[in-house]
Amino acid sequence: MNPPAPPLPPALERYRTPGLQRLRLYAALFMMLVLSAVLGRGRPGDLGTLETLRRSPFARVMFMDIGVLSTLGALSLVLNGKTAVRVPAAVASLFVGSFALLPALAWEDWRAMGEEGKETGER
Fold it and tell me: Cβ distance 63 to 71 under 8 Å?
C-alpha cells in the first residue's frame, strides 16, 4: 500500500478538480501556443527545424519528449475522459499535440462542471 500523497499547496489545490480556474489555465496555455505558432516564425540566421534536429542532440531529445508527452496526454484522456470527444481528440493529439489535447481537456472539464451543476441543482 502506498502512503498518502502530501497535500498540494493551496495555490495548486484549485486545479485538482474541474472548474473555472482550470478552464482559464487551458485557455491561457492554448492562446500562448497559438500565438507562438503564428508569431514565432523564422528569424534571420535561424537554422530551421530539420537542420536544428540534424545538428543538436538536445533538440532531438526535446522533439522526442514532445511525442512522449502527447502520448501520455492521449492515454490519460482516453482512460479518464467521459465524453465522446476523448478518443478522436486523443488520436488527434498524437499528430498535433496540445492543439488537440488542450481543447479536449477543456471540453471534458466543461461537461463535468455542467454535470456537477445538474447534480447540485445549480444552473
Answer: no
| Burial class of residue 96 in the structure, from the number of CB atoms within 10 Å of its CB (0-12 exposed, 13-18 middle, 19+ buried) | exposed
pLDDT on residue 100: 96
CA distances to 19, 35, 97, 108, 123 from 30, in Å: 17, 9, 11, 15, 27
Whether this model's pTM surpasses 0.85: no
Which phi and psi (to 5°) does residue 36 adopt? Answer: -65, -40
Closest CA to 23 of 89, 95, 102, 81: 102
pLDDT digits (tens, 9 = 90+) for 23-51: 999 999 999 999 998 888 777 777 888 89
Q: Is 110 exposed, middle or buried (0-12, 13-18, 19+ CB in 10 A)?
A: middle
- Asked if 89 and 104 count as a contact pair (C-beta separation under 8 A), the reply is yes
The C-alpha cell that represents 11 in the structure block: 495555490
State the maximum Cα–Cα separation within the chain, in Å, rounded to a whole number: 59
